[in-house]
Amino acid sequence: MTMAIAPGRDTTLCISLAGRPGTFGVRFHNHLYRQLGLDYYYKAMTTDDLPAAVAGIRALGIRGCGVSMPFKEACLALVDEVDASAAAIQSVNTLVNTRGHLKAYNTDYMAVRQLLEAHSLDPDTAFALRGSGGMAKAVASALRDAGFAQGLIIARNEQAGRQLADVCGYRWQAELGDLCPPMLINVTPIGMAGGPQAQALAFPREAVAVAQQVFDVVALPVRTPLVCLAEELGKPVITGLDVIALQALEQFVLYTGVRPTAAQIEAAVTYAREA
Question: What is the pTM of this model?
Answer without folding.
Answer: 0.92
